[in-house]
Design brief:
144 residues; 0% strand; globular
Length: 144
């Protein structure tokens, strides 16, 4: 049975980095073979943007979660360790702003909205909310 990762990209843990909890969940689900097959365990979008923003090596982060199955608190502690114990607030804020400011292309937006049964009137542009809709639609379709 697969589990849709319903943690929003706009959610942060104690570190303050949005999307990091979702990335952790996706990696954990993937490690246990429970991530839906059409979800990348660590994709090139928000996953990579988050790791780049925190200046953490992608392969090392994937290997750590898949190999150690850490709690979220342990994952954040590991992230901090990779950075010598501290990440400047400005770097976290810049990463968060990049994620919150990202919009999907028109075709992706139209596909997500159509699957959710929502008219594409241009009022929902940001990828965070579109991805939420996509997750909710996927979950609905799995349980209906």
């Amino acid at each position: 049975m697969s589990i849709v990762p319903l943690i929003s990209s706009d959610l942060a843990g104690p570190l303050g980095a949005i999307h990091l909890p979702r990335l952790w969940l996706k990696l954990l689900l993937s490690a246990k073979g429970k991530l839906p097959e059409d979800y990348p365990e660590c994709g090139g979008g928000f996953d990579q943007m988050t790791l780049d923003g925190l200046k953490v090596n992608r392969d090392a982060a994937v290997a750590y979660v898949k190999g150690s199955l850490p709690t979220y608190a342990q994952f954040e502690a590991w992230i901090l360790k990779q950075r010598g114990g501290k990440i400047p607030a400005a770097e976290i804020e810049a990463s968060n702003a990049a994620i919150r400011g990202y919009n999907h292309d028109d075709a992706t937006r139209a596909e997500i909205l159509a699957a959710a049964g929502i008219k594409d009137d241009g009022s929902c542009l940001d990828a965070v909310n579109l991805n939420n809709l996509d997750d909710w639609t996927t979950l609905y379709n799995e349980v209906k």
